[in-house]
Amino acid sequence: MKSFKRWGFDPFGLLGMVLLIGLWFALVPLVPRSALPTPWGVATTAVQKFFYNKTFAFYGLADVGYFSALVYTVQNVLMATIGGGIVGILAGLVTARSKLVRAVCDPIVLTLGTVPILIASPFLLLWLGTDRMSAVAMVGFYAAVTLYTYAQRAAINLNPVYESAARTYGASRGAMLRDLLLPGTLPEILGGVRIALAGAWGLEAIAELLGAQRGIGKLIESITGASDVESLFAALILLGITAVLFDVVVAFGFARLTRWRGGRGSLTNPR
Questions:
Q1: Three-state DSSP class for 165?
Q2: Contact 94, 156 (CB under 8 A)
Q3: Disulfide engineering: 140 pairs with which of 16, 22, 80, 263, CB 3.0-4.6 Å?
Q4: Is the dihedral of CA 254, 256, 262, 267 positive or negative?
Q5: Domain check: are 125 and 55 in the same one?
Q6: Distance in angstroms (rounded) separating the CA atoms of residues 207 and 122
Q7: Which residues are 268's β-sheet partners?
Q8: Domain check: are 248 and 131 in the same one?
Q9: Looking at the structure, do residues 2 and 104 belong to the same domain, yes or no?
Q10: How many CB atoms lie within 10 A of CB 2?
Q11: Is the pLDDT score of 83 beyond 90?
């Protein structure tokens, strides 16, 4: 079990997926096909329509297959998470070290962060149009809010003993940032990145569904209008698989990036 955690892999997550698929098979005989298609039917649809499908082309969609729609969505999610994450992390670290700035920024950020995406999206669509920038801005904003909170909390939780010791030895601000603040907050910030990335997939799909011209959300909107249940399930499952694969890759990278933590204790305040 420890070896799994070291590589950022959760075996219980895999067990949950297996149980979910087993439940799906169990419900197939009990639910009409119009509401719940068979797993093999969905798998066949996903393979057949992955690169090209004439029905999607008939809808007039820019994406004529699941693959091109997923590529567009992945690009938007990565741009939004990276851009919003940088802004949120920097703002969180700055406010953690300035009570005055934190007192001003916290109510604004936390209030805006509670606004549901369904309410915020019409304003962004009016301001930025229906191109990809509106979706990227929408998802990036929520990623920034999430990582603002994680970065701020990580910096506040740093044990002040280490900062006092660094000042005693004459460490400059740059050295403290490089050798203390960033390493000390990195594990918690990276955990926030995974949370932000996990939520970004659903937010991006909703943003595309509400007004985008491309992406898996737009594809889902068109499929829903055609009442094609198998294609709809295939789109949702492919989006879920994509999100899981990215989470596994990110978890592996973060585990390697923070492998120095093993056996070295914590820089955070003792609880």
A1: helix
A2: no
A3: 80
A4: negative
A5: yes
A6: 10
A7: 158
A8: yes
A9: no
A10: 5
A11: yes
Query: Could you give the CA distance from residue 243 to residue 171 in angstroms, rounded to a whole number?
Result: 42
Domain assignment of residue 242, yes or no: yes
pLDDT over threshold 60, residue 31: yes
Rg (CA), the chain: 22
137 and 10 in a single domain? The answer is no
From the list 213, 241, 269, 214, the residue with the least C-alpha distance to 96 is 269
3-state DSSP call for residue 52? coil
Contact 81, 196 (CB under 8 A): yes
My answer on whether 102 and 27 are in the same domain is no
Identify the domain containing residue 205 by its residue range: 39-261
User: What values do phi and psi take at 170, rounded to 5?
Assistant: 80, 25
- Most confident segment among 57-66, 169-178, 196-205: 196-205
* Helix orientation angle between 229-257 and 216-225, rounded to the nearest 10 degrees: 160
Instruction: Specify if 27 maps to a domain.
Output: yes
Are residues 141 and 84 in contact, defined by beta-carbon separation less than 8 angstroms?
A: yes
Mean pLDDT of 233-257: 89
pTM of the model: 0.82
Question: How many separate domains does the chain show?
Answer: 2
Q: Is residue 271 part of a domain?
A: no
Residue 226 maps to a domain: yes
**Mean residue pLDDT across the chain:** 81
Residue whose C-alpha is closest to residue 132's, from 76, 202, 88: 76
| 158 strand-pairing partners | 268
